[in-house]
Amino acid sequence: MTESPAHPALWPAPLASGAVDATVTVPGSKSVTNRGLVLAALSSEPGWLRRPLRSRDTLLMAEALRTLGVGIEETASSSSADSAGGPGGGEAWRVIPAGLHGPATVDVGNAGTVMRFLPPVAALADGPIRFDGDPRSYERPLGGVIEALRTLGARIDDDNRGALPMTVFGGGALEGGPVEIDASSSSQFVSALLLSAPRFNQGVEVRHVGAALPSMPHIRMTVDMLRSVGAQVDTPEAGGEPNVWRVTPGALLGRDLVVEPDLSNAQPFLAAALVTGGRVTIPDWPAHTTQPGDALREIFTTMGGSCELTEQGLTFTGSGRIHGIDVDLSEVGELTPGIAAVAALADSPSTLRGVAHLRLHETDRLAALTKELGELGGDVTETADGLHIRPRPLHGGIFHTYEDHRLATAAAVIGLAVEGVEVENVATTAKTLPDFPAMWTDMLDPAAVPARRA
Ligand SMILES: O=C(O)C1=C[C@@H](OP(=O)(O)O)[C@@H](O)[C@H](O)C1
Ligand SMILES: C=C(OP(=O)(O)O)C(=O)O
User: In sequence order, what are the residues at sequence separation of 6 or more whose Cβ sits closer than 8 angstroms to the Cβ of residue 115?
Assistant: First the structure.
């Protein structure tokens, strides 16, 4: 990684010298990898995860499950499904379920998936499981999961804070049954209860009560992945009651899962095509997926490009012009920082709506985007549930990232078009995309890749 000589933690974001033209292989999905790990750990037989994402969030998940007694072996993948090699160089994780044991300590880092998906797993263990993490993890919403688990029969000591740190006193089993939860602050509350529910004595009936649920595609991903390992799940979509999910108790099958590329991590590379009027191809873009990043095909097309899904993957081509957009991002909130970056470079204003819950993500993303784009000369205002962005000429400066991977990648997108943008702590991209700086440089100068990688 090239670092600014004046300040080692500053990464000079490269300015694009022309239209990008690159193929970018994006590593596996964080959301699929961490669900796959949990489901494989709860199965009644060993399973495989091929092309898993290896990043801070997924390594924390794997380490936590190992701490509870699950076997996770890293091997070279031998599946024909994985013969293309692909991200991770054909790596695979063999997951060998075992009895879940405490006492143990789980480090959640700042991974929403770890801090929400694992407390229900811990309730199934046979001893106390302590949960701790980064300072920001203490501020992220968890109270709904804690209260729901208590209703379902778990004993949890959180000093009545409704947040980390806390201890789940696993009793070796959990009764389960009906539970109400307000998951308007994070869809991960619902996913967390559903993922472990086949192992609850009575399964679960989760009823969301409260304001609208964000990130519905991520709940659909949970349901799809549960069904793919043999779980029976009733959903609102399948003619059920609105906001009610039911999971029947039963054994889960060990599966051989090839993890899709992370489409949300494809975002900055697609944005590069849009911002430079160039062309970027992402291999292995799935034809059908529950990942919210698939919405980028429509969103970035509206903002000024066109895309084509072929055998080679998704090719996105920028038109050379960037348009503003008025869009409800409640289903795809994690795409907001990258869309805001493109919107700041557009030829007309944008309104991004439906994402009030982003104030409780890795950082307060609405405040951070308003401040950092503002300090580069942008005109951004926070609304009750999003951002208004009125483009005007930007200048260089330091872009602070608040330990938020998506702010760092958003800053790199701005840096393509604005000279002198320095990204503070670009290494924070390790949360979901550890190779980001090298991938970015390779995209901008594909001809030099063999020499650079030699
Ligand atoms: O379940 C998941 O894998 C995720 C759900 C979403 O969380 P929220 O519903 O809290 O936004 C998303 O933003 C996060 O990046 C990943
Ligand atoms: C919100 C995000 O992560 P987490 O899984 O920690 O909630 C994200 O990746 O944008």
Answer: 108, 131, 133, 137, 140, 142, 164
- What is the mean predicted confidence (pLDDT) over 61-69? 98
Contact 339, 310 (CB under 8 A): no
Q: Read off the pTM.
A: 0.95
Tell me if residue 334 is catalytic: yes
pLDDT of residue 185: 97
| Residue nearest atom 1 in ligand 2 by C-alpha distance | 361
- Amino acid letter, residue 147: E
Q: Provide the token pair at 265.
A: 């991590």
Residue whose entry in the numeric block shows the structure tokens 């873009």: 285
The answer for residues whose C-beta is within 8 angstroms of residue 304's C-beta and 6 or more apart is: 274, 318, 319, 320, 321, 322, 323, 346
Distance (angstroms) between ligand 2 centre and the Cα of 340 equals 17
> Could you tell me the domains of the chain?
10-26+261-453 (3.65.10.10), 30-245+252-258 (3.65.10.10)
Ligand 1 pocket residue status of 409, Cβ below 6 Å: no
237 pLDDT band, cuts 50/70/90, is: confident
Q: Which of 91, 260, 334, 403 is catalytic?
A: 334
**Predicted pLDDT of residue 160:** 79
For the CA of 290, the nearest ligand: 1
Ligand 1 pocket, 187 CB below 6 A?
yes
Cα(255)–Cα(36) distance, integer angstroms: 9
C-beta of 403 in contact with ligand 1 (< 6 A): no
pLDDT at 4: 47
Looking at residue 261, the DSSP 8-state letter turns out to be B
12: confidence class by pLDDT, cuts 50, 70, 90: very high
